[in-house]
Input
Amino acid sequence: MEEKNTDESANLEETQISLEDGFLAVEAIRKALEFRPYIKEAIVGDKFLSLSREEKLNEVLTPRTSFFFADEERKVPSLFFRFVGEVSPIIEAFFYPIEAVLSFLDEARNLVKNFPDKTEKEKEELVFNHTLDMTLLLFDNFYRRAEITMGYVTTEVIGQWHRNKQQEWIHTESERGNKLAQKRDPFLDNLLDSYRKDIGNFWKYEGQIRNNWRKLSLAEEYEALYKHWSWLLRMSNDGSIDWRDYAKAGKFKDTPDDLLNKLLDVDRSTDETTSNKVSEIAIEHAARRAGLIKKTGVSGYAQNKRKEGIKVSDYSSQQLFTFLKEGRELKQKVEENEKWLAQVETESSFEQISQSALEKKRKLLEQKIKFIQEKTENQLEQKANSAQTENS
Output
């Protein structure tokens, strides 16, 4: 008996979380919220109860990602999510991310322990930074990821209900001695395939975000760098000027030496060929600034240069100009979004439309609540009358 208790104590000790890890997890959560200032404090508890009836209805019809404090001393922030459908709220969830962040800590430690060249202090810093990265990834994607799941749940239930009814019918017919061919309804299987595909596409898009920002940066850098290299080309034509002295002035101090050497070999036979060569140099310079590098199938030349600290892209000029086009399209979308946000802030008409839509939802929800209340009251009254009749 004593031996069993000893084993249980040992297992308990193995699963206990150290205070240090608990503090680290809380610190990572708090730091993640500092990086996401748009996540505001939730209107829950006493704050929600203090709202008027109309304010409460408006609040429950507003999708939310916000934080709240899970303890009275306001030390441990957690998350609050509200998902809203077409006419009513679907779900409100309190999410306590401590266990998730502790798992992130373990994952980070498993990675960092393989860095023998790092000091213990450097390893601790890396562990925290990696944990913070994963926490931000969780915060940024939890709402949409959960929304995908909830979007399928209702249809999944309908699909499974049809399967159950089919099985009941087959069972009933079998009891009657009727022979039936077993047919599987593919509806639910197809639905689950779509679900898996949507989740895969969701994380695939998340994985492309950094590369898209690099393409956006490429589009933002290219024009100025093209002018820079065109100016250097004109200066190089003047034999009386040591143009290399001006090549790395000011914001162009990162002008690469290997690209400066290429400038000397530019074909100057026609304006078109000259412009094309300058643009190829400029696009490579912009790619290096943006951090766009080829990661697979890298040439030996590029590998050697990267080992020397020269981060050549190793992409062809044609591929880089394709990225430039994509970056410009992304830039246009960002500018359109910023313009739209500015209109939202300044145009009262949009706010009126938004308030009108919210009021319509609120009225529909009020009608539903009233209907449910009246029906409940009628049922209670009927039960009371029935009980009186039985007693008499």
Notes: The chain has three domains: 17-165, 209-346, 352-387. Strands lie at 40-41, 64-69, 77-84, 89-95. Residues 221 and 253 are 14 Å apart (CA to CA).
